[in-house]
Specification:
6% strand
Length: 124
C-alpha cells in the first residue's frame, strides 16, 4: 500500500520548532546569501573572475571569496563602498515586521512515498 505524506516547507518547520534565538541565525544567513548572490551575479554578468572583482573593489580575492560564500558578515560601510565601486544601488531598510520570517519564500510542496518497497537497503 502506498501512503503519501506531505512534507512541510522547511521554513514552516523552522518557524514551528526553532527557538527565537536560533531563528535570528537563519534570518542573518538569508541576508548574507542575498549579498553573496548579488556579488556573484554581478561578477558573472560582467564576466569577471574573483581576482578581477577584488581589484575593482580594492580588496583581496580571498575577501571576495568570503563574501560570495556568505562566510563574512560585512559592515554597512563596506557594503556601501562595494555598491559605489560597482555602480549598484545600495538600500538598507528597517520596517515593522508583520509576520515572522515573512520575507522567506515558501518552498514548493513536496511529497514522499513512504509505502514504496524500494527503500534504502531493500533488494531491487
Amino acid at each position: 500500500m502506498n501512503e503519501l505524506i506531505k512534507l512541510e516547507s522547511p521554513y514552516k518547520i523552522v518557524e514551528k520548532y526553532v527557538s527565537e534565538e536560533d531563528k535570528k541565525y537563519f534570518e542573518l544567513d538569508d541576508i548574507l546569501v542575498n549579498i553573496a548572490l548579488s556579488l556573484i551575479n554581478y561578477r558573472i554578468k560582467n564576466n569577471l573572475t574573483q581576482k578581477e572583482l577584488a581589484q575593482k573593489l580594492g580588496m583581496t580575492q580571498a575577501m571576495v571569496s568570503k563574501l560570495e560564500s556568505g562566510e563574512y558578515n560585512p559592515t554597512v560601510k563596506m557594503l556601501y563602498e562595494i555598491s559605489k565601486a560597482l555602480g549598484l544601488e545600495f538600500k538598507v531598510e528597517l520596517r515593522e515586521k508583520t509576520e515572522p520570517m515573512e520575507q522567506w519564500i515558501e518552498c514548493s510542496e513536496s511529497f514522499i512515498d513512504v509505502g514504496s518497497s524500494n527503500r534504502v537497503g531493500d533488494a531491487a
